[in-house]
Amino acid sequence: MDVNMEQLTEIITVVRENIKAQPDYDKFNEARTREALVAPVLRVMGWNVADFTLVDVEYSVHGGEGRRKVDYALWPPAYPRKSQGHKPFTLLETKGVDEEIDKDAVIRSIRDYAFEAGVPKVILTNGKIWRYHVFPSPVLTDHYQGMPQVDIYSAENSSSDCAKALTSMFEKVLAAPIDHHLTSGWVSLEDYLRPRSRNRPRPKALRFPDGDEHEVNHIRDLMKVTADWLLARGLLTAAQCPIAGGRNRTKLLVSTDSSLEELASWEAIGTSGLFVRIGERGNAADVPALLEGCGQSPADLYVQVAR
Q: Model pTM?
């Protein structure tokens, strides 16, 4: 990266002063943080936010069709954007100045961006602290920070040292073309279930917390495939049955009652003697209750949708 270190040092000093001067009654929210604190740093580091080949603002991480947008998608000058579908090198998400960006909920949100966009590198900042996160594989527990965070607001760090550290962070992120081995089109089960429309996209595959993936052909397959995964890992046993769920009314999900096999809305799970309710219309909304009934978090299950 060809960064003017003197200018970057000056901008970091200005950012510090702007934060200190902000009155208590008008805190920097996410939008103000992005425009007043983050965009100036990006410009000095070589990203003209008006250049569509290098920067996409409010970049859709859902195939260009979804509601979820990340603040910036970045391409380095050496590898500019070639087409609408050309994946960025990294995503950059901004939070409000007063928001703690090491919270699990925040990390989970940028993890979702990474998987939905198929881009494993995400930079996260609240204008004061900059962090670089990597999601290198489908195994969610592989997540790590690419290097120590850079706190450009701390009085313990000089503006010039912060400029050097921030430049090193971006150089590491953009060092070379990355292998986008994460396939885009993945959405969390929560987001997949959120639309109430009957026009929900057809699922193509499920990705479980340990990285295991299974193809599916229909919404009704989600319950069966999830039950098979739980059974194979010893998380679902006959001793737990019956398993029930449902927010509005109790609904039986898994049972040992063999007579249920005669019903079209139930299916046997292997040779375990267990039967799972798949629903006559393939009620995918039952999957979270099944996972929770087996001590698993639905937030860590991903669905790849057909485009």
A: 0.68
Q: How far apart are CA 150 and CA 128, in angstroms?
A: 8
C-alpha span between 307 and 55 (Å, rounded): 25
| CA separation for the pair 124, 130 (Å, rounded) | 6
**What are the residues whose beta carbons fall under 8 Å from the beta carbon of 197, sequence distance 6 or more?**
none
The pLDDT tens digits for 69-123 are 899 999 988 888 988 778 898 999 999 998 999 998 898 889 888 888 888 889 9
Cis status, amide bond into 242, omega within 30 of 0: yes
Angle subtended at Cα 105 by Cα 21 and Cα 138, rounded to the nearest 5 degrees: 125
Do residues 222 and 206 make contact, with C-beta atoms less than 8 angstroms apart?
yes
* Alpha-carbon dihedral 198, 204, 209, 210, rounded to 10 degrees: 170
Distance between CA atoms of residues 259 and 213, nearest Å? 31
What is the distance between the alpha carbons of residues 72 and 34, in angstroms, rounded to a whole number? 10
Q: How far apart are CA 104 and CA 281, in angstroms?
A: 35
Look-up: residue for tokens 């737990």?
240
Instruction: Tell me if 59 sits within 8 A of 91, measured CB to CB.
Output: yes
DSSP 167-222: HHHHHHHTSS-----SPS-EEEHHHHHS--STTPPPEEEEE-TTS-EEE-SSTTHH
Cα–Cα dist 213/216, whole Å: 10
C-beta atoms surrounding 15 within 10 Å: 21
Of 13, 76, 69, 10, residue with least CA distance to 44: 10
* 100-107, long-range: CB < 8 A, 24+ apart: 101/125, 101/126, 101/129, 101/131, 102/131, 107/133, 107/143
Domains of the chain (ranges plus CATH)? 5-173 (3.90.1570.30), 186-305 (no CATH)
